[in-house]
């Protein structure tokens, strides 16, 4: 093993040890016994967040506090699985209809899965291979796929505590779609949502040309509808 390989190995081992320490006692770091552990590490991360814009994909200094932001949704999912263990057998394309609010306007939140080589095409999507897009009925993107936590927060706000279908909104939706037989508007919005993913990737590729660490341009690309499968969608009405 040459020196460069050893240094990379040492860095990876120390990063994994840091992650294990953070999820355990916080202070029993066998590699750095003199280190004060979790509290000091979190203090440094918070100071970094306060003073600079943190790249959530930058793992060279260990796990970022930003990467822990989705844990609350994982806990929600684990709780849900206790009463709905058959979730893996649910068909694709299920939908629900919820009322819009002052903060969250009418539109559709699509949850898609990328089936193109299972590669994170731009190294910025934290929930790859899944992609979420919130699009208005007019085709404007309300929240793009680069903000999964915001989208999950929106879905939680719209749906949490609602275990039964809401008649006043699903009745209107059923009338407009002829009880699901005419989904032309949803299909058009889905196409726009996928187009927005492609547009956003192109923009991030261009931005990456001016940043340190190389570019994501010219890497595995997405071409359109055939690169995705529809997992489910939430109609905000």
Task: Give your account of this protein's structure.
The protein is an alpha+beta fold. Helix content is 40%, strand content 14%. It has six helices and five strands. A five-stranded mixed β-sheet has the order 1-5-2-3-4, sandwiched between helices.
Describe, in short, the structure shown:
It contains 6 helices and 5 strands.
Structural features:
single chain, alpha+beta, 6 helices, 5 strands, about 40% helix
Q: Residue ranges: pLDDT <50 for 5 or more in a row? A: 56-67, 208-220
Determine the structural class based on helices, strands and strand pairing.
alpha+beta
What order do the helices and strands follow?
A: HHHEEEEHHHE
User: How many DSSP H or I helices?
Assistant: 6
**Major sheet:** 5 strands, mixed
Note the beta-strand portion: 5-15%
Layout of SSEs?
Blueprint: H1 3-22, H2 38-51, H3 71-83, E1 94-98, E2 107-114, E3 130-136, E4 141-143, H4 148-159, H5 167-176, H6 184-208, E5 228-236
Parallel strand pairs: 1-5
Antiparallel strand pairs: 2-3, 2-5, 3-4
